[in-house]
Amino acid sequence: MPPMMEPVTMSTPTNLSSANEECLAERKWWCFLLSSIFTFLAGLFIILIFRAFAFLCSGPTAQTQQLQSNGKPKVSLISPPTAPAPLPANNAIAAPGANVPQFTKGGDRSRFTDQNGQQPELGWVTEAKDWAGELISGQSATGRILVVLVFLLSIASLIIYFIDASRTGPGNGIGDNVEKCQNWSENHTQQIDLALNIFFMVYFFIRFVAASDKLWFMLELYSFVDYFTIPPSFVSIYLDRTWIGLRFLRALRLMSIPDILQYLNVLKTSSSIRLAQLISIVISVWLTAAGIIHLLENSGDPFDFKPQHTISYWECVYFLIVTMSTVGYGDIYCHTMIGRAFIVLFILVGLAVFASCIPEIIDLIGSRSKYGGTFKSERRRHIVVCGHITYESVSHFLKDFLHEDREDVDVEVVFLHRKPPDLELEGLIKRHFTTVEFFQGSVMNPIDLQRVKVHDADACLVLANKYCQDPDAEDAANIMRVISIKNYSDDIRVIIQLMQYHNKAYLLNIPSWNWRRGDDVICVSELKLGFIAQSCLAPGFSTMMANLFAMRSYKTSPDMPSWQNYYQCGTGMEMYTENLSASFIGMTFAQASELCFIKLKLLLLAIEVGSEDGGATIVINPKGNHRIQSTTQGFFIAQSADEVKRALWYCKVCHEDVKDEKMIKKCKCKNLGAIFKKGVRVVQAVSNNPTRQTESGLNPNTHGNLTDGNLTRNPSMNLIPTHTPPEIPKRAKLRVGDHSGDPTESTHLIPPSSSSGGRRAARNGKSLTISSPSQPSAQTQRNQSSTSATATAANQPAKPFKDMHLAYEVKKLMPATRPGGDVTSGTTAHGSVPSAGFIDTKDFDFDKTEMKYDSTGMFHWCPARPVEECILDRNQAAMTVLNGHVVVCLFADPDSPLIGLRNLVMPLRASNFHYHELKHVVIVSNVEYLRREWKMLQNLPKISVLNGSPLSRADLRAVNINLCDMCVILSAKIPSSDDPTLADKEAILASLNIKAMTFDDTIGVIQGTNGTGLGSANTAAPPLVIQRRGSVYGSNVPLITELTNDANVQFLDQDDDDDPDTELYITQPFACGTAFAVSVLDSLMSTTYFNANALTLIRSLITGGATPELELILAEGAGLRGGYSTDETLRNRDRCRVGQISLYDGPLAQHGGGGKYSDLFVAALRQFGMLCIGVYRYRDTIGTEASSKRYVITNPPMEFILMPSDMIFVLMQFDPGHEYFKAERGSQPRGVNTSIGPGPEHGLTTATTNTGNQPPS
Q1: Which DSSP string do the residues of 441-476 spell out, in sequence order?
Q2: SS3 string of 574-630?
Q3: Under 8 Å CB-to-CB from 340, ≥6 apart: which residues?
Q4: What residue ranges are annotated as transmembrane (predicted)?
């Protein structure tokens, strides 16, 4: 030892160099290598000796146990002992005699105990093994920290090797090679490496203790790494020299990176784990082989070990990668024999690793979708859109969602779909890269929901495939998506598209589904058929509403026809919401609407009022008893959101004298209280000013009572819409009695029965002879006496849906139809029904009342009847007087998916129509299909079925299609997936077939009576006669055709000039209201997101009054249930509805001859409470190209000039009027004997008398 220390004590450089040469004259590398080999062999020898000793010691014991087992029976878990075992301490019931081991808590560990409560000795070795195994397993926090720490320190040791290896090579001088003499106390890298190796040695012993098989542990890869790196560190202290040796083996620790990343929960997918494994294997083999070449080339050939060629470590790294890739440039190569021998062997192994791993790595990297990242929200709101994601659906959605007319949309759209986007969709996403991102994944996977930050999203939208083959399967898939989303985040707002109405009930089963929090459903079939139903009442209304909730931009051009300029100006209108300013407080809706239209150039449709339950209710065109309150929200029709701000900024003090509406900006008034008081005073002064009432001759809140061509309160006076050209007008001749307009006699909404047997006879189709009106019955007098009480109840303030649940539950116990025979005891009914707060038993007579409405009072109702009673054959239909009805031409196979015809009929059966105003519905279709639909139609009155084909002209003539108010062409057949353009072939053929038909110049004549039963005993009301001239040409028959493919609209009109690439809303059939496609409903998704109340308003307008309470009832699957008329349900009739009025005659005809639209708007609103929202005008009225087609003009400007042939879209309030009684309750001219046809539920009258006039049922 002392002689070896003498060279190191030299202080001068010359002496130091000489000492190094003397020290390195004798190489000691074999000492370092032998230390590693002896350590391995010693450990292996100790383990083998221990195993041999254990085998020898356990031999006699095993033989003794074998002898004992032969002498007496062995005790097992299933053999019963001599004494019964006690009950276990944990009160578990064990088998009799079972030797059940028990667990007892000892510290933090559980130990086995036998049945006597004694713990068997496990030994300190076993405890140490368990402790070590838990420490290195990575399952506990301590274990994970230790595993990560070992990896980090291994990398630190590898870095130290890189530092030392970088000093070895050409240009570093003699003695500064793989082996060098240096005092250990002065070698800082070796000191650090020794400290790390001491830690690795401790970790080695922990692993050794935890190993179940010690022998195999000694042969593990990481054990060899420790053998060849730890002992040389201690040898270098003794020899005062260092050998770079095999420290490069620490690079093999890189292969534990995948395990470390899994412990840290960084790698979660199998592809990412496999990719990490392959990369770590390639890098480890690469760096380790480079270290071997570096050691061999710098050491030289044996046995002299004088290197002729020195090379740096990083050159070896370069040489190995060139060799592994089979390129071999030849600029660097091995000079030593042992180096060349290693390369030969390495090529066999390394090339195999390189050839197998690199392609797999490339495949994994290539298979990693570029849409597989994580969404990073940058302080902006975002929404997640999933479901049916295609180029068409995304383009329609983004076109409306990111429209320029919306306010600043600071919302990012994130699409999540399991398939990568195609080239078209990818290009669309790139064009909107600032606001749109796409991620590949599944909504059903919580990991993917976390990637797109669903819990932070503003809403989640689920799109449906409207062209799917199986609508129910599509709805089921989307509902499952909602369940997954709600399961991940129950407070996320979800807006979903569904195809079928009956599937809405399944959403109610989701516990976290709450429509009050913004969750909403856009049912395609409900809205589609609802739009078509409203077009039956007001042709063209579907086009108007579709344009209102879609964001469109228009540009008028002098080169376009005038009708297109007017129409496109209307398409630019949208529906917006905004709070009304304080200047509106105290006004009635009519006053506020007039102010908005005249002053602000805005159309106010509805307001949101508070309800008793703390919620809000949307009221459309309410009557005068509704006053504008503070912060009332209004629903407007305008061109942009900026225009609607005028309603918020309007100040009576600052803007009263402003003529230009664009100058109405936000003022600087601070004394809002003074403005409010002044506004209230002005409103009161206006409402109390008798001058305004005398100017019009009418109270602004009272409907007029005009006769001889003027509009009256009698609902039978409603003007009949015209659908024919001006040269063939449909005239309405009205003769009304003197008492028809008396508002005090028009509130009897519960007509008592004159004879229960008579009603049953009418339902059974028996002939009834109507008595002369000159002899009023006693029942009529009772009707008069009960009028005032009912009128008083009708004027009470409404409490919508109060006690609805209790009322419905009690009504379910009531009989749907009265039992046969006469009910003689009225007190029985009174006593059997408990007072539930919704029935006034003093004024309610069950014996004299029938169910006419459903349990909510929103729709007309009749007792269920089988479909056979409503089926007509062709002869019966031909003998029936059908006029002013709705013909539904439905293409369906017996097994076609149900389209939900109830959604088409229910708006036509809304209770805000009187019974006689209901249009009869005749369905021409396959009766086997209708049997499946009938369950939802059996409680709706005035429905008939003709088992025929919509393509049969004989069937169409039998139902008097030339006299119908509207012909609806639908298809329930599954569209072909081969050619989407053929999906509408039946509908197009039926439309062209009807337009090619010709008819006789027939006139449909209906004679009825005012039927009030309220006239005096000596006064007979004259009959009501309506003459209607039918269409001579099929092209004049009012049609609306449902299309699946937008491009097929070009085939409906052969005389239009539309290009095939023209957007649907610009085409002539859509502008005229004769075509409707489901694609227009795509805009409702974004409309509902930005304004949750917009969908409620649209649904109220088109469904006839469907409410969440009614949907809960329908979700039970039993259909509509009848209910007795109460004050509460009758008040539900008092709601607005859509209608059309003509300017050809009537009280508003004075505005038709060149009048301004603003004058008509004000007159209709003040005199009749009707809110004008648009014009339905003939496309060409002059010149040689005159056409019978009309087009829609939404909210025309104030200066718009009207024509006599114009039809006006209006929102009219409910008029109680005179309830129209059926034939047995009314009066009829003497000598007319009318035979009721298949039944009054059909609403048909069969021509069995010789008189020319026949009353409707």
Answers
A1: --TT-HHHHHHTTGGG-SEEEEE--TT-S-HHHHHH
A2: EEEEEECCHHHCCCEHHHHHHHHHHCCCCEEEEEEEECCCCCEEEEECCCCCCECCC
A3: 334
A4: 29-50, 145-163, 194-210, 275-296, 311-329, 341-362
pLDDT in tens, 167-179: 775 555 444 467 7
CA angle at 914 for the pair 810 and 1256, rounded to the nearest 5° = 120
Judge whether 389 and 417 are in contact, CB under 8 Å. Answer: yes
861 and 933 Cβ atoms separated by less than 8 Å: no
Q: What is the pLDDT of residues 341-383, one digit of tens each?
A: 888 888 888 888 888 888 888 888 877 778 888 888 777 899 9
H or E stretch at 384 = strand 381-387
CA distance 44 to 58: 21
Instruction: Please report the pLDDT score of residue 1185 as a whole number.
Output: 57
What is the C-alpha separation between 1163 and 797, in angstroms, rounded?
27
- What does DSSP say about strands 853-854 and 179-181: parallel, antiparallel, or unpaired? unpaired
Q: Give phi and psi for 999, each to the nearest 5.
A: -130, 160
Cα–Cα distance, 1015 to 942 (Å, whole number): 28
Are the C-beta atoms of residues 616 and 800 closer than 8 Å to each other? no
- As a dihedral over the C-alpha atoms of residue 95, residue 100, residue 106, residue 110, rounded to 10 degrees, the angle is -90
Going from the C-alpha of 685 to that of each of 594, 717, 1093, the distances in angstroms are 17, 35, 34
The three-state (H, E, C) secondary structure of 680-695, written as one string = HHHHHHHHCCHHHHHH
CB atoms within 10 A of CB 920: 23
923 contacts: CB under 8 Å, gap ≥ 6:
888, 890, 901, 930, 943, 944, 945, 946
* pLDDT higher than 80, residue 163: yes
CATH number at 381-537: 3.40.50.720
> In this structure, is the dihedral angle defined by the CA atoms of residues 1033, 1034, 1036 and 1037, taken in order, positive or negative?
positive
Q: Are strands 411-417 and 1122-1123 parallel, antiparallel or unpaired?
A: unpaired
Answer yes or no: are the C-beta atoms of 484 and 457 closer than 8 Å: no
CA 779/CA 772 separation, integer angstroms: 14
Taking alpha carbons only, the member of 1020, 1026, 1070 closest to residue 1048 is 1070
874: helix, strand or coil = helix
Q: Which fold has domain 267-363?
A: Helix Hairpins (1.10.287)
| 267-363 and 381-537 have identical folds | no
Task: Return the structure tokens found at 1063.
Answer: 């957007």
Give the Cα separation of 280 and 872 in Å (integer): 80
* Residue 1006 φ then ψ, to 5°: -125, 130
pLDDT at 578 over 60: yes
Q: How far apart are CA 909 and CA 939, in angstroms?
A: 11
The rounded distance, in Å, linking the Cα atoms of 634 and 580 is 6
How long a stretch of residues is the chain? 1257
Q: Is the dihedral of CA 471, 472, 478, 482 positive or negative?
A: positive
β-strands 102-106, 109-113: how paired? antiparallel
Q: Which residue has the tokens 């019978």?
A: 1188
Q: How far is CA 662 from the centre of its chain?
A: 38
Question: How would you classify the pairing of strands 241-243 and 179-181?
Answer: antiparallel
Q: Which residues pair with 102 in a beta bridge?
A: 113
Domain extent listing, the chain = 27-36+123-254, 267-363, 381-537
* 972: three-class secondary structure by DSSP: coil
Of 237-251, 769-783, 975-989, where does mean pLDDT reach its minimum? 769-783
3-state secondary structure 1176-1233: EEECCCCCCCCCCCEEEEECCCCCCECCCCCEEEEEECCCCCCCCCCCCCCCCCCCCC
pTM: 0.66
Instruction: Average the pLDDT over 114-123 and give the result.
Output: 49
| Half-sphere exposure at residue 1084, Cβ-oriented, CA atoms within 13 angstroms | 27
